[in-house]
Design a protein that fits this description.
Helix 5 runs antiparallel to helix 6, helix 7 packs across helix 9 and helix 11 packs parallel to helix 13. The relative contact order is 0.12. This protein is mainly alpha-helical.
């Protein structure tokens, strides 16, 4: 069901192939899709909602299956699946169920909307969606956001963010990552970019953030690893440590996240999931969004999470959540990690 690209030549993809390649077209609906549509219709008909049926359908489907399900439900019953789930569910369970009812690019567009509507901006929720994306997926996300909200994503980010975080977000949203070319992305060029990175940060008074962000965002993962090695050889610290020294606040976290999604994506996502459960109380929205968005690569993340924290993601969900919300999260994990 899930395909993984282990090459460091390109950024890790989190969308299923059907979304990335836009090959949905006019799909043939298998019996499992028809049965799920009927089960959801029955679960939401009349007084009250059968939450377990929602878990058994939306929670047990892969992102690819949910893409087809959302289309088929509207065809079959004449009602938008998101609007239906919105009217029938609530609280943390309802928020996650609503996101599951959308194709993944639209779900991410909804997450961006949730992070930016109202007074203030939830930057902690926003930057993991904007940073660490392939060019193809960023373009799909921008199209999905404009289609759903009739607003340009770059203009939204420009109005909602400020300072270094704004500079980074606008660099990311442009989708400027170069395709790896061994004749161009050479060791000597990596050494030059490592020197440029140093001059823009540790080697000057003040920080040239735009140069630093440009190097990170434009460099394909395999090449950025070469730049990182060259930086270590010359300065005895890696790029992550350099960012920690030169940046601060959410911009620092976001830049390190962008870097991590290129150099060690599975460890980076594992740390993001752990952070949603750190401190006093659990960031349920952040946890929901992380499990939802990274479900396609979750098996790899599961391994790294266990290695890093000596506990599984299921353990973390069991400890930090409860009720139908917990059951829905666990079902989503079970889809990609049945053991």
């Amino acid at each position: 069901i899930f395909n993984f690209d282990h090459s460091l030549s390109i950024m890790t993809s989190i969308y299923p192939d059907e979304v990335r390649n836009l090959q949905l077209g006019d799909p043939e609906y298998g019996p499992e899709i028809e049965e799920a549509c009927d089960a959801i219709h029955t679960a939401t008909k009349g007084f009250g909602t059968d939450e377990q049926s929602i878990i058994n359908t939306l929670g047990s489907f892969t992102p690819s299956q949910r893409l087809i399900l959302s289309q088929r439900y509207k065809e079959k019953f004449g009602k938008d699946l998101y609007n239906l789930v919105d009217s029938e569910t609530s609280f943390n369970f309802g928020t996650l169920a609503k996101l599951l009812s959308l194709p993944i690019p639209e779900a991410e567009a909804k997450i961006i909307r949730m992070a930016t509507k109202g007074i203030g901006t939830n930057e902690k929720l926003l930057w993991p969606v904007i940073c660490g994306r392939t060019n193809v997926e960023m373009n799909l996300l921008k199209k999905a956001y404009f289609k759903r909200y009739n607003e340009d994503l770059a203009i939204l980010l420009s109005s909602e963010l400020s300072g270094d975080l704004k500079k980074l977000a606008l660099a990311c949203v442009q989708g400027l990552e170069e395709e790896f070319d061994p004749s161009y992305h050479t060791e000597s060029r990596a050494a030059e970019d490592a020197k440029l990175f140093y001059k823009a940060g540790q080697g000057r008074w003040g920080t040239d953030e735009e140069t630093i962000f440009g190097i990170i965002c434009k460099s394909p993962p395999k090449y950025l690893k070469m730049v990182d090695s060259a930086y270590v050889e010359k300065n005895n610290v890696n790029l992550e440590r350099a960012l920690e020294k030169e940046l601060s606040g959410k911009a620092k976290k976001a830049a390190i996240y962008e870097l991590g999604m290129k150099l060690s994506p599975y460890e980076t996502v594992a740390e993001l999931i752990k952070q949603t459960c750190a401190g006093m109380g659990t960031d349920e929205l952040g946890l929901s969004c992380a499990i939802l968005r990274y479900q396609t690569i979750l098996p790899h993340v599961m391994i790294e999470h266990t290695n890093m924290y000596s506990k599984t993601i299921q353990d973390r969900v069991q400890e930090e959540t409860s009720g139908y919300y917990k059951d829905l999260l666990l079902e989503m994990i079970h889809v990609v990690w049945p053991s």
